[in-house]
Design goal:
Number of helices: 5
Helix content: 40-55%
Largest sheet: 3 strands, mixed
Number of strands: 3
Radius of gyration: 15 Å
Order of helices and strands: EHEEHHHH
Number of domains: 1
């Protein structure tokens, strides 16, 4: 584990308390959250106790938030996390990490909240268009692509 990253798995009540302590608005569907301190200290990931497959997918999504500096646009930031998550799931599936191949969903369904679903649909569309997940992350970070780009207006 990199020294600049910490992961804690907690029960739902503690996740709620931590989420609120860090200024978040709690919703019962939250599976995890992260505090990105890239370049300024140790980034933190907090995930709800869960079955191993769901827990690892949540961890992958949250790592996607902290692997690079945060993006200003919330949709682009979520797309970055989903691109990492999709690559993470692919590796876990291909290598049958922890024997979980049979229980991993290679096409997860994010929350339909106008943020997670829109960002995920953008990543899926971009993958179908021929880009790899690392390319999507790189292009988002360099602002070569955006979820709200002209060609993506219909997603909003």
């Amino acid at each position: 584990m990199p020294e600049n990253m910490m992961i804690r798995v907690v029960d739902q009540q503690e996740l709620k308390e931590l989420h609120e302590e860090f200024g978040g608005n709690w919703s019962p569907g939250i599976q995890g959250f992260s505090i990105n301190k890239k370049g300024f200290g140790q980034s933190m990931i907090f995930c709800k106790e869960n079955e191993l497959d769901r827990l690892l997918v949540t961890v992958g999504h949250e790592i996607g938030h902290i692997i690079e500096f945060p993006l200003q646009d919330k949709l682009d930031e979520e797309a970055k996390a989903f691109a990492f998550e999709m690559a993470w799931i692919k590796v876990m599936f291909e290598h049958n990490i922890a024997g979980l191949r049979g229980s991993l969903n290679p096409d997860p369904m994010p929350a339909k909240n106008g943020l997670h679903d829109v960002a995920f649909d953008f990543v899926r569309k971009t993958i179908l268009g021929g880009k790899s997940c690392p390319e999507i992350i790189k292009d988002l970070m360099s602002h070569r692509i955006r979820v709200r780009g002209e060609e993506n207006e219909l997603l909003l």
